[in-house]
Write a structure and sequence with these properties.
The structure is a homodimer of 482-residue chains. Chain A contains 14 helices and 16 strands. Chain A is an alpha+beta fold and 482 residues long. Chain A folds into 2 domains: 101 residues, OB fold (Dihydrolipoamide Acetyltransferase, E2P), CATH 2.40.50; 312 residues, Bira Bifunctional Protein, Domain 2 (BirA Bifunctional Protein, domain 2, 2-Layer Sandwich). Chain A has an 8-stranded mixed β-sheet, with helices on both faces. A 5-stranded mixed barrel of chain A has the order 1-2-3-5-4. The longest helix of chain A has 23 residues. Strand 8 of chain A pairs antiparallel with strand 8 of chain B.
Chain lengths: 482, 482
Amino acid sequence: MSDRIKIKALLQTTPTEQQVNVKGWVRTFRNNQFIALNDGSTNSNLQIVVDFENTDAAILKRITTGAALSVTGTLVASLGKGQTVEVKATQIEILGDSDPEKYPLQPKKHSLEFLREIAHLRFRTNTFGAVFRVRNSLAFAVHQFFQERGFVYLHTPVITASDAEGAGEAFKVTNLDLNNPPKTETGEIDFKQDFFGRATNLTVSGQLEGELGAMALSDIYTFGPTFRAENSNTTRHLAEFWMIEPEMAFYDLDDNMDLAEGLLKYVIKYALEHNREDIEFLSQRLQEEEKSKPQQERSDMSLLEKLEFCLNNDFERLTYTEAIEILKNSTQNKKKKFQFLIEEWGADLQSEHERYLVEKHFKKPVILTDYPKAIKAFYMRQNEQDANGHETVRAMDILFPGIGEIVGGSQREERLDKLEQRMDEMGIPKEELWWYLDTRRFGACPHSGFGLGFERLVLFVTGMGNIRDVIPFPRFPKNAEF
Amino acid sequence: MSDRIKIKALLQTTPTEQQVNVKGWVRTFRNNQFIALNDGSTNSNLQIVVDFENTDAAILKRITTGAALSVTGTLVASLGKGQTVEVKATQIEILGDSDPEKYPLQPKKHSLEFLREIAHLRFRTNTFGAVFRVRNSLAFAVHQFFQERGFVYLHTPVITASDAEGAGEAFKVTNLDLNNPPKTETGEIDFKQDFFGRATNLTVSGQLEGELGAMALSDIYTFGPTFRAENSNTTRHLAEFWMIEPEMAFYDLDDNMDLAEGLLKYVIKYALEHNREDIEFLSQRLQEEEKSKPQQERSDMSLLEKLEFCLNNDFERLTYTEAIEILKNSTQNKKKKFQFLIEEWGADLQSEHERYLVEKHFKKPVILTDYPKAIKAFYMRQNEQDANGHETVRAMDILFPGIGEIVGGSQREERLDKLEQRMDEMGIPKEELWWYLDTRRFGACPHSGFGLGFERLVLFVTGMGNIRDVIPFPRFPKNAEF
């Protein structure tokens, strides 16, 4: 191991006929002579030139797609095209065989659907190597962004007794014997005898706990798994996904939007700088894929252009009320081409409306603010009623091309009376959230926060079409394999 | 907001009578004149000097412990001791009151037990401010360490159908109506009708999935929550905790130990460099706490000294067999002072033995290797039987003073036949882990990995005594509050 050099580093080395050792997996083996070796450090394979006349035939036979090798040899400039250096092998050790009759990955194009079924092996393909290296960079960039700004990374609980946020249906967590659970006198399950002494579930958001941290540490962020037990079989939903949720004391909605826009640009820039090769590959992949689509469904911009465009343009900021006017007066609406026609203020925006605003009208990312109170969560700060009698809250959603909502946030309601009133109206039990309300009783202050769905971000930056392809082992209805 | 400066930055500013705005929470208010203001960016409070003769009495009354303020004033050199600068307030705005009759946190020492019950407010104390800032730094340092080495951060699933690892009892996850679950013809719960179409639980480790990533990307790490449904009411166990699990292709056990020791030193060094003030505070706190203990229970070294000591010394590496000899021949054992006497090879080491080795015998961190096969997991690489007929595996545990096991790892068994045989012996269903076994069928290679319990690391670096005090909202038997 100590002498092994990774392929990414090797490909950047000046060849001076030095001895090197590389380890990796065979992608292809041509003419009993050229091995394309990959070790996951980069999508570029290293060409190994085999001296087949002096290599044992039994060894040559075992150099098959998927086999693990240790190769020692001389690093030389390559005469072939596609690479600048190659290794002339002096010693090849087969670490692990891969029976070509049985190995599911062959050197040809496999469908994404097929690869999802062998998700334990799909890391070994160019596409998924690139996707998971980009995902890695985006995750680290998120941390670096917040660390540079003095935010404290807070691990909010995954198992929680509070089901009050109403962000979606939660999975139950229990340690009871389900076939024979203890019952109360009235015949209900007796959760007092469960592990935590009460009914618990998997968190749908770390926000409420995050606010507790912000009310002492000023700026915090979470980055952890969240869950929805919703039977959504779409390309945009997962039952288990990762969320980033910053909460900031003393931030108003404008500060909040500035931070969110800054974060998105920062992490996209980071990925472009650190994963240029992977993103170029994915951009190419997307263009290939789109060739099979009718002209009008193809993107105007390549993936790379789309990312650059995001970096170089301010996101368009407007209120929900302004957006409704635009949508109502759009030819799309007038010609009844929306599935859900926009008739009046108060309508919840559907994906088709969001995409119209982003992709057709503004042609750039859009931040919508000040949504109707009736369609938003209880903790959002209430605006004064406007001249038309409309009641809105200080919400903001960031809409991205091809993705729709990527960020949802708000200024939080810091006024105890307004908050309690809204909880009462929405039937949210105040006693369960006594600790949340305490932050409004003691040293309350204006504050804001948002949630960024990490997989949606990865989807955007990799140009993949299905959210199940940007998380290692996706969880969705009827699937928890691996 | 735009003009607000955080207190940590302000305290490092040269005072030139400039106008500044700060926002934070009142820690104390003395003589109607001196506010100690804290915003969580540092443990050091900012002194605000109030011109009480020209300040409204109604405002003065509302400057109470816990209240949120926005203060505008002039930054001047401080004449008082304990700070170099202070702010002469020209304007004080009360953002949020804090009724001193009701606010649970008073400017006095509260017990850790009491603070655990108000974990939503304990971030507002010096101790927990320091603990969670140190925790933040350690988490980021972990990421930075691996990123610098080209590892890919992998999010392994939290919900899993595989219960096979045997690392401990798992929580069940379900979306069934527990009061009225669907049953099969034989009267068992029908998990085919559950969300995932099968019984699922919360992961106890991401290792097995991590290995799948390493067999393509070479080096990966996880950093996520893991769970144990064990009724352990100790100061070292949580039902929900965060683990770091790197897996490395082509690493043998020595490489593995080097990486783990390197990681621990890197993150401790990072915390000492970035959180010196917090760690000094926690070191002081520990010394105070130990004053109430009998002399022989006090530490030889302060927290700071212990951390420096860890950085500056190689960890002691020895085999389990060597450790057993040391323990068997120790006066502790001979005088029967161990609760569990070491009589023969094969005994599982208890906490008292680990602590003896680390704290008494070697007086430094210890790495024990090559444990008896019988007491370790199925996936550890089997050694050849030794001359005494002992069967061991290539395991390694890192033992830390005051903590015991902080890292557990091994070289993994890459030989399919040996692995399957061991699974059969231990009754682990091979068909459930078909995907894991596939990595031994196709391109297997020597590889290694380990798990680092993140909270145990935080415990060590902060010098706290109870693991419930180093995670924001601890989960343990009969407790899932907040």
